[in-house]
Amino acid sequence: MKKIIIAILAIVLAPTLSYAGSKAEVLHWWTSGGEAKALQVLKDDFAAQGGEWKDMPVSGGGGDAAMQTLKARIVANDAPAAAQIKGPTIQAYDREGVVAPYNIDAVAKAEGWDKLLSKQVADHMKCDDGKAYCAAPVNIHRIDWFWANKKVLDSNGIKMPSSWAEFNAAADKLQAKGIIPLAHGSQPWQDATVFEAVALGIGGNDFYKKAFVDADVATLGGSTMVKIFDQMRKLKGYTDAGSPGRDWNVATGMVMEGKAAFQLMGDWAKGEFAAAGLKPDVDYYCAATPSNNGYLYNVDSFIFFKIKGKEKVEGQKLLASLIMGKEFQKVFNIYKGSIPARLDVPMDDFDKCAKKSNSDLNTAAAKGGLLPSFAHGMTLELGVKGAIQDVVTEHFNSNMSSQDAVKKLSAAVKAAS
Ligand code: GAL
Predict the structure, then answer these.
(1) Do 176 and 188 contact (CB within 8 A), yes or no?
(2) Per DSSP, what are the bridge partners of residue 141?
(3) Which of 51, 154, 272, 387 lies in disulfide reach of 46, CB 3.0 to 4.6 Å?
(4) What average pLDDT score do residues 349-375 get?
(5) DSSP 131-159
(6) From ligand 1's centre to the CA of 377, what distance in Å?
(7) pLDDT tens by residue, 182-220
């Protein structure tokens, strides 16, 4: 009898015991209401398995500040166990020799991550020339979205726009009535977020790829880019005087409260609506910004660095396993506004905008429109990304002409590449 009880106890306690004492310092930039609520799911899961989470938040939407802090920590030879990170920066750190792919790769192999993820997402997560997982993906965010206050649109007879001309007409109408058409926070990354959605819409999928994946200087300096900057200038005219420097979630709040009609932002904005108890088609509308079956994707992931101490390595393994958990990916992403990175998570409990994101992603993938967000670090080395972002934000916040912006853009990318 005693033996049976011990055996049962061993089975029941096994997962808890194996990770008890695990530790992980986690660097991230999820500090807004919706972001923090989503991250709490991971913190709770980690604690439930006996892990000790050391929080290292670096506020600042889009993560530019967090990436600087991370760099400084790495230079000081003081890498955290895990850090939120994006795209090619993962492999750039691997080339510096500071990443520890073989700490979590065994977990990935045992759990069959190659079968649970699309190849595109899996490739972003691998180091050592694609041989080993060194990062774990939590989600897929879409960038090219319009969010709008339902009451404001309905009471002004405005529908969600299906072309940029329609958006401009709606914005002109709202502005004439004294309503702020576009809630925006003019920070470099937010300007770049808007810019890449406009570029995808006006330039098309192939143009986007040439400009922001291949960093093709002729494309960056061509006449299509002039039209894109023209539309950026129009959008600037639809923002209010308080826009410069405003945080993105404050801008989302303006849409929630009906102080502004639209926001152009990735679907982490939906995390804010959800945290405030608001629902699509009841309180707000979502629609993809106009494009030809395009979809700008942005995968949030955590990278694992070389670190000393068995309990820290165990912490990395536990984190990696939890991040890729099926139930975790469901609950986390419902809060976060994104969709799961794992392919086998049922979408039934997600809202209408998430379901649209999921089906649009598949359509875009089939039609060549599934493209990495440059504004969120999914393509281009950080130096080139920074060069583009600087010109975009300088143009947006000055009277620079579209022609001058285009000249500056191609010159800046040429210099940075
Ligand atoms: C993005 C990130 C999102 C969200 C957003 C605003 O780069 O992928 O998860 O946090 O920044 O902070």
Answers:
(1) no
(2) 298
(3) 51
(4) 98
(5) TEE-EEE-EEEE--EEEEEHHHHHHTT-P
(6) 10
(7) 999 999 999 999 999 999 999 999 999 999 999 999 999
Q: Which residues contact 129 (CB under 8 A, 6 or more apart)?
A: none
Residue 193 CB partners (closer than 8 Å, separation 6+)? 62, 143, 264, 265, 266, 373, 375, 376
Using a 6 Å cutoff on CB, does residue 30 contact ligand 1?
yes
Query: Residue 19 — very low, low, confident or very high, per pLDDT cuts 50/70/90?
Result: confident
With tokens 């990495």, the residue in question is: 372
Nearest Cα neighbor of 135 from 149, 123, 148, 147 is 123
- CA dist 407 and 312 (Å) reads 49
Question: Is residue 406 within 8 Å of residue 400, measured between CB atoms?
Answer: no
Question: Which residues are within 8 A (CB) of 327 and not within 5 positions of it... i.e. 6 or more apart?
Answer: none
Atom 5 of ligand 1, residue of closest alpha carbon: 62
What residues have CB less than 8 Å from 52, skipping those under 6 apart?
Answer: 21, 22, 23, 24, 315
Q: How far is residue 380's CA from residue 213's CA, in Å, rounded to a whole number?
A: 6
Q: Is the pLDDT of residue 80 over 50?
A: yes
Q: 397, exposed or middle or buried, with CB in 10 Å at 0-12, 13-18, 19+?
A: middle
Beta bridge partners of 302: 84, 136
The answer, yes or no, to whether any atom of ligand 1 lies below 6 A from the CB of 377, is no
Q: What is the dihedral of CA 61, 64, 66, 67, to 10 degrees?
A: 150
